Amino acid sequence: MSEDELAVESIGKLFRKFALPAVVGFIIGGVQITIDGYFIGNGVGTLGLASVTLVYPLLIGMIATAMLIGTGGASLVAIELGKGNRKRAHRIASDMLPLMFVLGTFFAILGLFFTEPLLRMVGATGTVFVMANDYLRIMFIGSICLIAGIGLDPLVRNDGRPNFAMKMMVVGAMTNVVLDYLFVMCWGMGMQGAAIATIIAFAVSMIAFVSYFFSRYAQLRLYLSDISPDIKIIAGILKTGFPAFVMQASLGVLVLSYNYMLLRYGSEIAVSSYGVIEYSFAIFFMIFEGISAGVQPIIGFNHGAKLYDRVYVATKMAILSCFLVGLSGFILLYTFPETIIQLFNRNDPELLATAVEGMRIFIFGIIVEGVIISVAVYYQSVNKIKPSLFIHFGKIFIFILPLLFILPRYYGLTGVWMAAPVGIYLMLIVVGVMFLKEIKILKHPPTEVNE
């Protein structure tokens, strides 16, 4: 798709062209996460689920880094293309690769020397500690594959190739599923097998994306001679991507805190139940991310071109779509919790009972979670960093975390499950007030909208 089409094509058609492939790709990613849980739960057992849930806050550090570079760089590229600054956009894309390599090397060093103290920090003990260490060490050592596999995806979409990005996510996910089955179920490689399968899958995506940008098919074609890091550009990437980093990193803090409170007011079964609930939510959260990722280049380009009415329509479409997906997810998960939970483990009645109770409370937040994500992505797409950062930070640190440490004092384990949905709805009120003011600006823009 040419840059002119982003400025003149109907928003509905652009939404279908960019958002639908992104949604399909992210759904496949969500299915991949869910199937990972299936293989670990059935091939390793309840303690395997607890192990992954405990290390997840540490894995989020890598995902947050990928989002920091990928979302930050892709957002700046879209804005510069909207302004007609193709040369500047090309420089930004060129500087993303060495940044990924440097930060990936940092995580690889953690994997080689520091996994055991990190696991003690998150509360892993006994058999869970051994399983978690097997998994985390391999994931950290292969971090460059994960960071590049995730981080280059939004740049490919912003280069006008959303279908290619989708196909590569599908290929990576299918690779993971096949290898999970072979390594975990057939060859009994346990947690190490699950980690190796995941890293190989991300390596496939990384190789495909890097090859694309060095090929003649890329509009922002890269050459080795182009890679000459510019400190100002790298600082701009990090600044613009910081809200996405905070969103993911805050999620890591939240999961870590949930694990602590679940162990305090419940047991390892409660931690496993939380993992199962998150696996069940994964597909719907991936749809939220897909819608937001798909609409980001549309918003960013048209904001750069000062076509604010088109920015408003695209954002409204994303918000409505996320709400409908969230409502559908709530109905499905609230109606059939037992069936869904038994996908991950059929042999532990205590796990089933605890997870069903938790899901029927926890699930209420999913209805509006996507709306909050869409508004935050809007602010990031138009390079308004502070409000985007506030939304990501505020939801968890101002609302959910305080409730997580207050409500269990009165309601026990039920209070742990209540904290997230109550906090999400409180944040929705704040986001609604913020965005109503933004709508007025988009409908009646001043001479210059804050960039």
Molecular structure report:
The chain is mainly alpha-helical and 451 residues long. The protein has helices spanning 3-8, 11-43, 46-83, 86-113, 115-121, 126-141, 143-151, 153-158, 162-186, 190-213, 231-265, 268-304, 308-335, 337-341, 349-362, 366-381, 385-411, 413-443. The two termini are 25 Å apart. The model has no long low-confidence stretch (mean pLDDT 89).
Distance between the termini: 25 Å
What is the tally of helical segments?
18
- Specify the overall morphology: globular
Helical residue percent? over 70%
Radius of gyration, in Å, reads: 21 Å
- Domains counted in the coordinates: how many? 2
Tally of strands: 0
Query: In this structure, how is the largest beta sheet organized?
Result: none
Q: What is the helix/strand order?
A: HHHHHHHHHHHHHHHHHH
What is the structural class? mainly alpha
Strand content bin: under 5%
What is the overall pLDDT average? 89
Instruction: Catalogue the unreliable spans.
Output: none
